[in-house]
Amino acid sequence: VLRTAIVxxxxxxxxxxxxxxxxxxxxxxxxxxxxxxxxxxxxxxxLSSHVGRGTFVNELSSTRTSPQGRSKTxxxxxxxTRGQALITQFSASQLEIYPFTPxxxxxxxxxxxxxxxxxxxxxxxxxxxxxxYSYSGGYAPLRKAVADHLRLARGMSPETDQIIITSGTQQxxxxxxxxxxxxxxxxxxxxxxxxxxxxxxxxxxxxxQPIKVDLEGIAPTAPDMNGPPPxxxxxxxxxxxxxxxxxxxxxxxxxxxxxxxxxxxxLEDDYxxxxxxxxxxxxxxxxxxxxxxxxxxxxxxxxxxxxLKLGYLVVPRNLASAFKQGHYDLNRPGQIPLQAALAEFxxxxxxxxxxxxxxxxxxxxxxxxMDSLQPCLKNGVTISGVNQGLHLCVxxxxxxxxxxIAQRLAQKHLTVRPLSAYCFNRKDLRGLVIGYGYAPLxxxxxxxxxxxxxxxxxxxxxxxx
Length: 465
Ligand SMILES: Cc1ncc(COP(=O)(O)O)c(C=O)c1O
Prior knowledge:
alpha/beta; 4-stranded antiparallel beta sheet; 18 helices; 14% strand; binds pyridoxal-5'-phosphate
């Protein structure tokens, strides 16, 4: 109904839509259904949602009504409506690189000269085959090294044949979307969610359905369960991105049972489990899975460096050959000399050593940041996600304007992300996502107190107003 009204011009550009509650009442539908439809229209570029202001009809969408308008838009930007949606929606991705930008890593422990030597060696050894595409899921010794690593580090038991080397999690997610779901099928994503995963699903034409996350991870409600079943379920169970909650064992069992009952595939993104600082890590869903419904993905972006562009996907045994074929047909993967250098880096213990040094450095940075933040931990301010990873989440009372705090900090050249920027339907989550991967320890010491002061100030202003 809404799409037709927008296309026909009955809902002009910039007009504000009623709240989802009012729309549900007017249309005689559940709020869940309305929210799902609104999200889809946002994803398709017809609408924009602005935290705290509401949902508005886009200029771009209205120009679809006339061929003239369409060509004007095309001339202006040369970008399709889908392309516009892909580059403008859900972007926490602007590249301001300042202390505390989440998602970035500290490269200072990476052994660059050793890495250069290894690469040189494998380039010298390269025989013509190694310059070809990589056909069977990646360079075999690297696939074996990854399987061995997962056995040791995560208690998993994959066979080498189940490992597919990809250009990182983004490609792993795209491949799963292409091979496991048809156009328009539903993917459950966490609310709030990792923007990179949303982009992967959007670009492959899937229907995104946000599912609330609580302290135990993704928490589907009765209306979610009674709606159309998902084909894919994307989760970050070890350290939910961005809230940092860890999925409980009960929730893991429930999710596996949902996947079994609805014939859905679980995409488990274990993006930062290498940085575990406290307590015993929960076993991955892929290890608990008895039905072959979990695809597990890891990345070398955080442990080594993002520009390496290498990650891996562990697929159930019966999907291995389809995935190898699909990966080859769709992506024409290559970089075998680079994969060979990485295999040797892992086999000879350099990976374990780098990881150890990096873990120690990040543990110190995490502790320093936590100390700095102590003074603001009152009046309903809490921290989550501290036991693992390279970021934590400061949770604020829900009436705090987290975007404003982030903007104030940006003026001081400190980048934190407002939690609301990662949310779909959550009006109850406000906070700051703070990374401690990128900044050196000295900068965390210098700027940590500024973070705490800005947070306390925002809470004080709330009380006064
Ligand atoms: C939740 C999440 N998954 C995965 C990744 C890594 O993705 P990639 O391997 O595509 O670099 C990141 C990086 O920031 C992330 O935040």
